[in-house]
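RECORD TYPE: inverse folding
INPUT: structure tokens
STRUCTURE:
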């Protein structure tokens, strides 16, 4: 969603010149074209060959078979490449430092330094071909709001962001900084969404939304990477989750729930959340409930291997490594069952646990655990867009869609791993990687 023009003064100047009789060409947008050798259309679930994409400003206005080169605008020759809509990662943490062995890491940087860290992560994500993300929480409240707005204003390069603002979590729960000495104070901005009961949840959820969050992120169960919490343990009550869902609905948006445990998943879905994050210990009843309620699953099935190998080598706390081992295989089996049952699955990686820019490394895992390559691509395009209520804007490559396009060498439908090696990236009609 565009909140402001990067250079509003330019628009005013052009309008003034046209009003004074300047050439009409000043007010017209010169088209740009892309000659796509192969174009993956995830909306139709098919691949078109030798296509011409016409772009005016930020949007695609037409897609048609290639006949000859247009003469009214430049043509990008991607005829030897496979072109796709820009990818979407529905579970990122751009603003915070990447995961380390130090449980106090969030306390070691200033807000100013954190802004630069977030900007670097945003750029790496965009260069990897992810032109939209949903950022699902940051330790320092509203750092993600600031980064989203800076990107929208053209101040820093990055993907389109939908952001949570702060975690809604129980005291000492999975969205808290835990494991440090009892007499060490945690800054208030890092506890903005800590709630005591349903009434407090109404207040905190309202506060987060009025300060710029696009949706709400609830920590319904314990977490793998938060010391002192257990993934299977329910932390927020059904009444507390309902309170957040109600506050989100008042402002025309939704709540999503971090939920590893089987009971936490079912409680959150019954309470009305739009999506379940992780879903590691989901059972058959939970899968059936998600299918019946139309809830999305966003399962980070790649990073269990990263945590095990990298975390072990770099001496991450044993509690984290144990919980990761206990959830990785179960999560993948639950994912396979959910795919088979027809649960809506959107692509989400938990980027920040592993390095930003590695987002596409999960693609082969999606295929290994039950999806076709086209389904994996759709999970990161059309399905993700539907979860964000942005169908027809992002994750698509037809008329009226944002001109967010990527291109790769090779065929992702025969080798999905080629999406880890993106050659070209366009966002909003601007070529940002060539």
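DESIGNED SEQUENCE:
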């Amino acid at each position: 969603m565009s909140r402001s023009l990067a250079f509003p003064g330019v628009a005013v100047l052009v309008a003034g010149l046209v009003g004074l009789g300047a050439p009409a060409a000043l007010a017209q947008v010169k088209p740009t074209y892309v000659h796509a050798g192969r174009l993956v259309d995830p909306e139709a679930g098919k691949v078109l060959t030798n296509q011409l994409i016409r772009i005016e400003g930020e949007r695609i206005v037409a897609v048609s078979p290639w006949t000859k080169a247009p003469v009214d605008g430049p043509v990008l020759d991607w005829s030897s490449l496979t072109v796709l809509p820009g990818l979407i990662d529905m579970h990122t943490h751009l603003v915070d430092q990447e995961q380390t062995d130090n449980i106090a890491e969030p306390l070691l940087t200033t807000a100013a330094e954190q802004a630069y860290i977030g900007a670097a992560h945003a750029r790496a994500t965009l260069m990897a071909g992810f032109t939209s993300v949903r950022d699902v929480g940051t330790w320092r409240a509203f750092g993600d709001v600031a980064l989203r707005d800076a990107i929208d204003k053209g101040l820093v390069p990055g993907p389109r962001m939908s952001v949570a603002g702060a975690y809604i979590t129980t005291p000492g729960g999975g969205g808290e900084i835990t494991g440090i000495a009892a007499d060490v104070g945690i800054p208030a901005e890092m506890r903005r969404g800590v709630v005591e009961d349903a009434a407090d949840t109404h207040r905190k959820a309202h506060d987060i939304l009025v300060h710029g969050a696009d949706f709400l992120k609830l920590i319904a169960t314990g977490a793998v990477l938060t010391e002192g919490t257990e993934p299977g343990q329910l932390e927020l009550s059904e009444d507390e989750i309902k309170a957040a869902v109600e506050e989100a609905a008042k402002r025309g948006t939704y709540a999503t729930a971090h939920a590893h445990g089987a009971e936490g998943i079912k409680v959150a879905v019954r309470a009305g959340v739009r999506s379940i994050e992780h879903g590691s210990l989901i059972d058959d009843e939970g899968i059936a409930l998600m299918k019946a309620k139309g809830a999305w699953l966003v399962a980070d099935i790649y990073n269990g291997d990263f945590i095990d190998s990298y975390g072990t080598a770099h001496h991450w706390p044993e509690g984290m490594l144990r919980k990761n081992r206990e959830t990785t295989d179960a999560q993948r089996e639950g994912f396979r069952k959910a795919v088979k049952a027809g649960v809506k699955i959107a692509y989400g990686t938990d980027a920040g646990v592993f390095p930003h820019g590695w987002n596409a490394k999960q693609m082969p895992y999606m295929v290994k655990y039950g999806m076709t390559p086209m389904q994996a691509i759709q999970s990161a395009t059309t399905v993700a867009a539907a979860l964000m209520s942005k169908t027809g804007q992002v994750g698509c490559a037809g008329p009226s869609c944002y001109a967010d396009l990527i291109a790769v060498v090779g065929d992702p439908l025969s080798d999905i791993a080629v999406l880890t090696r993106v050659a070209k990236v366009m966002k909003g009609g601007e070529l940002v990687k060539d």
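NOTES: The longest helix spans residues 318-341.
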